Amino acid sequence: MKPEELEQLIKTQLEEFYRRRIEKLKTLQLKQVLKRKNPYLMRAIGLRTASEVVEYLLLLHSQASDETIFGDAFVEPIALIVSQGRKSSAKGVDLEIETETEFKAIAVKSGPNIFNSSQTARMNDEFQELHNRLRQRLSQLGKHFDPILGSSYGRKNALPTKQRRYRMLSGQSFWQEITGDPDFYLKLIRLMRDYPEQQRKIYQEEWAKAVNRFTRDLLSEFANEDGSLDWDKIVRFNSGAGEEEKAVQ
Questions:
Q1: Phi then psi for 143, rounded to 5 degrees?
Q2: pTM value?
Q3: N or C, where is the chain less crowded by C-beta within 10 Å?
Q4: pLDDT averaged over every residue in the chain
């Protein structure tokens, strides 16, 4: 892929990333976030004002949400295009690259988070299910089945083990595996240019609206007459028995 084509691809996917971030922020409500966060921790670290609570909740939410959105809107589409592979129809597998000697089945992740034993087992099963479906054809063609868990950043690279029956590739190793270019991981960051700054201005406008919306609702529903936060009410909403139906509304 030519540098100008790659830059345009990166720009397009950054725009999609910000579009999804903004759409999620536009519809986000205080109670959606408050019911999922630890009120004891918020109290323990000394949050006292509505503005402190709101900034804390929005930051926690965006940190968790952005990683998922970034993987779906940026990492996976770019990996699919630059690898010249095809999108997999198999559960848990995102990308398939077939060569004369190999069939690479790749689950693409934004980051190299360590899987626990149950997640590893599920990933094993999903790769195995695809392999079982392809086994006869690959055997006839003499092709090796190569399952890979690929992450866009990090240094977690490992061969299969008895418990984990797939390779792990991260960062430079992952991008080089699917593009053949050892510098591709650097090109990704360089060719972002100033597009993130351009998009961030629009995002900040929606962030300010969310801050105002959250602050209004927090003071309206979870504050005392004197303006202090009603922690009993916050904890009842978050953790009280019989409050689940109300919290979802």
A1: -105, 140
A2: 0.88
A3: C
A4: 94
